[in-house]
Design a protein that fits this description.
mainly alpha; 8 helices; 88% helix; 246 residues; rod-shaped
Length: 246
């Protein structure tokens, strides 16, 4: 009995393949224009999401790589009290998220003459570092909202194509006055293709969005730690400078 059921399924699959064809060109020809428009929209969404993925991957890789070389160099310059040298080092690492934040803090420190810092000056430095961190955070998140939107909406766009395909399948039954596979093959192919493409677009978008969000959270922690350490450095330096003057 089981062998008969398996043979019947294989025969049905063979009939569907013969009626529709599995190659993309045959599937495209079987589709009506509503389903084709859905597929075109999904391919545009896929191209957009792939572009965002590549752009963010390159940006995060460059930020990580440059930050690894920037951190020890700027730490050495600050230990020696070379603020100008530290700023020049930061300007050479323009893709580093840490360099962008540190530059803002160092420039604010220089604006106060690098002397004894009052509480208001410390707060001004903190605000400058906070602004720089917020700007860098926004830069790191650029494009991710679109990626999240594509991940959330692509299955529903595919579902719309599925509905269109099912409607065409029933239309085929009405036109052919029959319920055989040939009458519904075109509509079923539209439904299956739209569903598959919608999932194909959405799944990578959601996975990469979650991955990039985790990366941004790690970058935020690094920027917060660097900003805190820089404020501590300013306070220690100004205290040392005030003690030396005495």
């Amino acid at each position: 009995m089981e062998m008969i059921f398996v043979k019947m399924n294989l025969y049905a699959m063979w009939l569907f393949q013969e009626a529709v064809g599995w190659d993309p060109l045959s599937l495209w020809r079987q589709m009506g224009w509503p389903a084709r428009i859905v597929v075109i929209i999904l391919f545009v969404m896929s191209a957009w999401s792939i572009g965002v993925m590549i752009d963010r991957w390159l940006a995060y890789s460059a930020a990580r790589k440059q930050s690894r070389t920037f951190a020890p160099l700027v730490a050495g310059a600050l230990r020696e009290g070379k603020i100008d040298e530290a700023i020049r080092i930061a300007e050479r690492h323009k893709k580093s998220h840490l360099a962008k934040v540190v530059t803002a803090g160092l420039q604010e420190f220089q604006a106060h003459g690098a002397g004894s810092m009052t509480e208001e000056m410390v707060e001004a430095s903190k605000r400058a570092l906070a602004r720089a961190s917020a700007i860098v955070h926004a830069e790191l998140k650029r494009g991710l909202s679109g990626l999240a939107t594509i991940g959330a909406t692509a299955p529903f766009v595919g579902l719309f194509g599925t509905v269109v395909g099912i409607i065409n399948a029933f239309k085929g039954i009405s036109t052919e006055k029959a319920t055989g596979l040939a009458a519904v093959a075109g509509g079923i192919s539209e439904a299956l293709v739209a569903t598959a493409i919608g999932l194909f677009v959405a799944i990578p978008a959601v996975m990469l969005y979650n991955y990039f969000t985790t990366k941004i959270e790690a970058f935020d922690v690094e920027m917060d730690n660097s900003a805190s350490e820089l404020v501590d450095y300013f306070i220690k330096r100004s205290t040392a400078s005030a003690g030396g003057k005495r």
